[in-house]
């Protein structure tokens, strides 16, 4: 009989492993679980890399099917002492100091990912001064109802105080006895395709820095985020930089693309919010105060980018699953107010472009539109814009003097009706945004060709 059972003054409050595991994985998707493991691998790669801006020799390989899941990287590896004291705790120990600018913050991502994916887990690590292998049988561990929550290194697989070559370091995780959800999803090409696209999006900056990520033999690619920056257009820029953290915001215009428009928010190079066109950023549907009008076709050229960097990732204003922003964070509230101001500056140009096309204004008279279209032919990567020698400031610059709308007294209104099918066909052919633009372009076509 235990001492606790003999002491009638104490109330037992030991956690249940079954309950703990079920709650740990309850609110995380398979995609998010894999994303956490990728984030950990990126942290290890950047810890190893002498230049985190050049990741051309770094690689993460993921293989999944209805029998197993594996992820392997050539990063720093995990030192045995870190595994022994910190890495497998359920929650981040206050004594553990994370690497600077990491994206693995909360100390639960790796474990809950393991439990979400399957029940037989094997970890193999080679770090600069140690190496080990560790096998976790989750079902067996759950059945142990004692107070022990620890795992054990595989016998004969632990070596410490060694010196391993940099070319050999890295971490590999293989998970078998998959969960039912994993078996089904990992055999679904649609799931795998979506996983590839989302991981590529989340790590677009790291991929553009040279990081290779391969999922089921397919090497991920990522588009460059871009902005126009030339003699006509200068993005709006704001920054706040201290010794341990930095915030940079830049907003302007790029190619006219409904899917890519909106706000992007990065935390330590990890994309948290992508192409946002909702109230999470600025698009609340209001003209003043806490937001701007709802995002629609008129704003397809808008691009805004926020970069949060912090040595201590606990200072980043993201949520615990890294799927969105902490809307109650004072830091994010302050940044969001800047984003609203900068969005309105860009919207001023976009409103003028629309107005200049209205009321029968001939294409040749749309001088502001013509200037902007010329600039849009050569948008530049945002990183290049941020590193430009041209001084950026907190005002969005555009050639407002070229704005040339038609006054009401000079215009004639034309109105007619057509079938929705014919209208949509003409709208797409003209790459027009609305009824008014379709009417104007079709009139201009007749005028230019027949008159």
Automatic annotation (TrEMBL):
- Note the superkingdom of the native organism: Bacteria
Q: Extract the InterPro entries matched here.
A: HATPase_C_sf
Q: What is the lineage of its organism?
A: Bacteria, Pseudomonadati, Bacteroidota, Sphingobacteriia, Sphingobacteriales
Q: Which Pfam families match?
A: HATPase_c_3
Protein name (database record): ATP-binding protein
């Amino acid at each position: 009989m235990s001492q606790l059972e003999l002491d009638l003054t104490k109330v037992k409050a030991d956690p249940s492993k079954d309950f703990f595991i079920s709650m740990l994985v309850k609110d995380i998707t398979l995609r998010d679980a894999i994303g956490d493991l990728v984030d950990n691998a990126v942290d290890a790669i950047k810890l190893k890399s002498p230049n985190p801006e050049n990741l051309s020799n770094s690689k993460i390989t993921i293989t999944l099917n209805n029998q197993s899941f594996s992820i392997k990287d050539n990063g720093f590896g995990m030192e045995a002492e870190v595994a022994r004291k910190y890495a497998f705790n359920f929650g981040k120990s206050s004594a553990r100091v994370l690497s600077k600018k990491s994206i693995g913050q909360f100390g639960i991502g790796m474990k809950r990912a393991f439990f979400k994916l399957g029940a037989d887990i094997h970890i193999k690590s080679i770090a600069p001064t140690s190496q080990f292998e560790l096998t976790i049988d989750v079902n067996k561990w759950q059945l142990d109802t004692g107070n022990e929550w620890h795992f054990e290194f595989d016998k004969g697989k632990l070596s410490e105080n060694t010196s391993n070559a940099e070319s050999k370091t890295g971490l590999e995780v293989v998970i078998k006895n998959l969960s039912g959800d994993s078996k089904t999803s990992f055999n679904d090409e649609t799931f795998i395709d979506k996983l590839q696209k989302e991981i590529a999006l989340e790590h677009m900056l790291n991929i553009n820095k040279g990081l290779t990520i391969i999922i089921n033999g397919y090497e991920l690619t990522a588009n460059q985020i871009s902005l126009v920056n030339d003699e006509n257009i200068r993005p709006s820029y704001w920054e706040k930089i201290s010794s341990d953290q930095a915030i940079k915001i830049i907003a302007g215009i790029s190619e006219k693309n409904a899917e890519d428009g909106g706000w992007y928010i990065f935390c330590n190079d990890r994309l948290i919010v992508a192409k946002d066109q909702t109230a999470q950023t600025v698009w609340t549907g209001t003209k003043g105060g806490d937001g701007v009008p709802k995002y629609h076709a008129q704003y397809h050229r808008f691009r805004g980018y926020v970069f949060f960097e912090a040595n201590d990732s606990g200072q980043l204003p993201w949520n615990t699953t890294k799927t969105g922003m902490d809307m109650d964070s004072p830091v994010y509230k302050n940044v969001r107010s800047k984003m609203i101001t900068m969005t309105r500056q860009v919207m001023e140009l976009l409103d003028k472009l629309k107005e200049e096309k209205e009321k029968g204004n001939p294409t040749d008279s749309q001088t502001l539109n013509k200037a902007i279209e010329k600039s849009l032919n050569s948008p530049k990567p945002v990183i290049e814009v941020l590193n430009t020698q041209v001084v950026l400031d907190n005002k969005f610059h555009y050639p407002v003097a070229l704005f040339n709308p038609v006054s009401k007294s000079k215009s004639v209104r034309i109105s007619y009706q057509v079938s929705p099918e014919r209208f949509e066909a003409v709208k797409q052919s003209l790459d027009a945004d609305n009824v008014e633009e379709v009417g104007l372009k079709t009139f201009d076509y007749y005028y230019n060709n027949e008159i």
